[in-house]
Amino acid sequence: MKATATVKETYQNGTALVEVTRKSACAGDCGSCHGCAHPEEHVRVTAQNTVCADAGDQVTVESATGAILGWASLLYLLPVALMLIGVLLPAPSESVNILLGMAGLLVGLLVCIFVSRKSKKMRRLTFTITEILSPGGLQS
């Protein structure tokens, strides 16, 4: 996955703090539909600074698409899958199936919360600055 970002700070260990402006799912064209409450979101991450970018530079940041898709599938599919398993298990009554479904959903959400917190500590999702688009924030 590629994104355009602005370098906010650089560090001695070869990393940089970058800010990515994420558009909404509808591409940020809220003037036409007036449906978005927050059309843009600013996300700050630490990235490997392999191209020696400086603060203020516009850069291209890349991350492993496979890792992002893996996390997304875990976060979206696991709770739903566990809920469906709970609902479809043979049970003496329909109310027991509903309780099993809710328990499966809860277990799935708890696993996602645990994995999300653990991954932040382990920093498995890494970002790399691959290209300087405009040095010092100047338009090229």
Automatic annotation (TrEMBL):
InterPro entries found in the cross-reference section: SigmaE_reg_RseC_MucC (IPR007359)
Keyword Cytoplasm recorded: no
Family annotation (Pfam families): RseC_MucC
Keyword entries, A-Z: Membrane, Transmembrane, Transmembrane helix
Entry keyword annotation includes Secreted: no
Transmembrane segments annotated in the record for this chain: 68-89, 95-115
Name the UniProt record assigns to this protein: SoxR reducing system RseC family protein
